[in-house]
Amino acid sequence: MAKVKSKAKAKSKLSTVNKILAIILAIALIGTVVYIAVSPAKVAPKEESAAQGAEDVAVIDEFKPGTYGGVDFQSVDDVVKYYVEVFNYNKTLTAPYKENGESKTFYKLLGDENLEIKSLLVDGKENATINKLVPSIMGSLFSGAPKGLPPAANRDPQYDDRDDGPNGSKLSQRESHLTADDILACNVKDNGDGTITITIQPKGVELSQADQDAQGRFFNVLGDITGTVSQISVLSFAEGDANSNIKVLYQGGTGEVTVDTKTKEVTKANYVMKVHIDVTHANVTIIKDKSATLDLEYTNTFPASDEFLKTSKGVTRG
């Protein structure tokens, strides 16, 4: 792009193109981290969703004690205990695959992943031109890959670890650390075919960290966005810094897991993580003091289709 020679000329060209640049900034900030290419900084998670002024409410039916599929559930603790047991067992199961023709051993149950922007506002307004560009922008920033049940760092069990745990510790994602205290709501359904479906909604969290809070123990969270933003040289803020101008709230997401109660194998699952992001007072080149809000929806669906495995990473079953 040619350099702007004068401030007057810059003002004359402050058109749709520059408005698009402002929102590309916001998407780029998030997309860089969504790709999870940068290790998040070690910061303490904030679990008070009220910081965003949004009430954390249940979006699923309440739990009703009873026997489902031959399994007795009398409390939320029972549901979480069973879920953790099922999760841990399924992450011991592997199967043969080929990746670009090379024999591999991955998790038996692999899922896909997808990221979608559900709502995007610049200075509180929608822009039809920007909305049309969003899919192509996100397509260049995010590429889905097969993964095990979330939280998961990989499709290969031997690499399903993260190195961003508390005090630099390594986190194994081959076992769940979810607790009853992490749960805002849950329920169980008997499908009448030997399977049950467990639905879980974890508590809302601000700036979630992997395996360090309710959202991070259930979803593939994005990590510390502000740490990455502060490294972008073309970005500054009209007031404050990245920590004070970027707010990330995880809230309202759910996971549905269908389990064969005889084998404890997961037959299908769908995790929908919802993230609300506020970016304020952002400056990029001639774009000054812009704000943007994004609502993201990140999904993991199991089992992944043969097409997704092949097109995403050249993976085939068997």
Short description:
With 318 residues, the protein is α+β, with helices and mostly antiparallel strands. The protein has helices spanning 7-12, 16-34, 76-90, 128-141, 225-229, 242-245, 306-313; strands at residues 66-68, 71-73, 94-99, 102-107, 112-122, 161-162, 171-172, 183-190, 195-202, 205-206, 235-237, 246-250, 254-260, 265-284, 287-302, 315-317. The longest helix has 19 residues, at 16-34.
Q: How would you describe this structure in keywords?
A:
nine-stranded antiparallel sheet, alpha+beta, 16 strands, 318 residues, disordered N terminus, 22% helix
Q: Number of helix segments? A: 7
Radius of gyration: 21 Å
Count of beta strands: 16
What's the mean pLDDT score?
Answer: 81
Helix content class: 10-25%
Order of SSEs: HHEEHEEEHEEEEEHEHEEEEHE
Instruction: Tell the overall outline.
Output: globular
Structural class based on helices, strands and sheet pairing:
alpha+beta
Question: What characterizes the major β-sheet?
Answer: 9 strands, antiparallel
Strand share of the residues?
25-35%
Distance between the termini: 49 Å
Task: List low-pLDDT spans.
Answer: 1-24, 28-52
